[in-house]
């Protein structure tokens, strides 16, 4: 397999498998539920992702189910986590499109969108190393809870 892209966009898993993170991130944002993504997993046994959900879509979904919560409480609600899990399973269900090591089941929801000058460059490209630095504790906790 030949991998094309920025070197810092390549994630090497603990088993040595290489994953081009933007490919997965671009696939994830095709779902209207998901607004922004950051795939992580450098040196880990499996891939994981941080997601920013689309507030209009999730609020509409929640309202249709009688959930009237603040955005902060909404992303902590088990029904939102389950719906997100279901959508990830659907996205990664085709074995002809994704190798088993590329499938993402581990995720965390972020309350706020990624910010230019922080996680994003001025051209709105992900600053992956900076994201990993800023969210190192959350990344570690996510894998410890797995």
Question: Given this structure, which CATH class is correct?
Answer: Alpha Beta
* Distance between the first and last residues' Cα: 29 Å
Instruction: Examine the coordinates and then state which fold CATH places here, giving the name of the CATH topology.
Output: GMP Synthetase, Chain A, domain 3
What percentage of amino acids are in beta strands? Answer: 15-25%
What spatial order of strands do you see in the largest sheet? 3-4-5
Strand segment count? 5
Total of DSSP H or I helical runs spanning 4+ residues: 6
Supply the helix-strand structural class: alpha+beta
Structural notes for this entry:
- With 146 residues, the protein is of the alpha+beta class.
- The chain is 38% helix and 16% strand.
- The model has no long low-confidence stretch (mean pLDDT 92).
Furnish the topology, listing elements before pairings:
Elements: E1 10-12, E2 18-20, H1 21-28, E3 34-40, E4 48-53, H2 55-64, H3 71-76, H4 78-91, E5 106-109, H5 128-134, H6 136-145
Parallel strand pairs: 4-5
Antiparallel strand pairs: 1-2, 3-4
Task: Provide a compact summary of the structure.
The chain has 146 residues and is an alpha+beta fold. It has helices at 21-28, 55-64, 71-76, 78-91, 128-134, 136-145, and strands spanning 10-12, 18-20, 34-40, 48-53, 106-109. It has a single domain (7-145), classed as ANL, C-terminal domain (GMP Synthetase, Chain A, domain 3, 2-Layer Sandwich).
What tags apply to this protein structure?
146 residues, alpha+beta, GMP Synthetase, Chain A, domain 3, three-stranded mixed β-sheet, two-stranded antiparallel sheet, 38% helix
